[in-house]
Amino acid sequence: MSLQQKIYDGLRLMRMTFLLSGLLLVACSSGNAITLRTKDTPLNQLSEVEAKLAFTCVHEKIPAPSSEADVLFKYARWLQKNNQIKQDKTTDLEIERLYRVAAENRHYKANVNLQNGSIRGQFNLSGDEYRRLSQQLIDENVATGYYLVAVFLENGSAGLQKDPDTSLRYFRKAADEGSAQAQGYVADKFEAANTALDIARQMRSCAAEQGNGEAARALGVDLKLSKDYQAALEALQLGVAAGDEFSAASLSKSFSGPKPENRMYYLEQQEDQERTDRYKKISKLLGVWSYANPKVPEINEIVPLPPAKLPAWDGKLKWVEEREANIPPPKPSEALIEQLAKAMVLDPKTGKPLPGSPVYSKED
């Protein structure tokens, strides 16, 4: 081995060792408890480091809710969508109430929405509630639980001290358990350190498959620069499906006949004005609705990748049509809300635990 190669491998090992100090987390055999390796874990060989960083794609699994709790969740989500611009505080209180009751009745999407809304300042959770709700997700093997704890540790919020090192371990655990957000986050860390780039690519691919538009776009750019043009096309198409306006804009440019020296947009495609126009229109629609997290699951029916021929298209997106139709789901009755609240010893007026509830806290 040449001296230059030895130096290269040595520097690469140092970068990986640094990342391992934050991104290596091993699950214990005892349930969902986790054991963190210390910074000075011995790492003797490059192959050993790479093996410990190895990633297997897992998609997040969320247990199905009860039909009763789902009624509350769907109506709360509809209210929330309709309050994104108005941001009416009275409406926020009602959304929080419904999410709280649903979450305490083991509706895990309600749990996640409740926590995310509180992080944005829309709802009001205490530090104890954040930690308890996140642990509830972890206990049910919902990867977002680990992701949320990672965010709390990164920011020093939810009653936890700021701990960047432990935060990275939780991000890695969340990625391994299937969180698309964590997979994209960890991949970005690897890329920034210019190490484990093959693993970063695997994580982005896994996240893209789960609808993470930013990860799909980053994957597309990576593959494009590596001149894997077909794979780059497919990745950016996943980005459009996930609602990423920039993926659509990029594909619009890629079908406008760029020259090979145009590394930003060249994807080895013939000029196709109709494809360019369709992607451009989709990008504009996604930009207009970006605040509402739009999706284009039917993208392959609108602009299938070559060599498929383009079908007729009326210029509309299903997501936009449904959003504009704004058909409300069934409104839960007060009797149903009280029934679910009583089952978990909650105040039906607020959704918060009452004295006598095993999760009651004076802090709440």
From TrEMBL:
Top-level taxonomic group: Bacteria
Pfam families in UniProt: DUF6396
Domain spans labelled DUF6396: 247-354
InterPro entries in the record: DUF6396, Sel1-like, TPR-like_helical_dom_sf
PROSITE patterns, A to Z: PROKAR_LIPOPROTEIN
Keywords: Lipoprotein
UniProt keyword annotation of Lipoprotein present: yes
Protein name: Lipoprotein
Organism: Pseudomonas caricapapayae
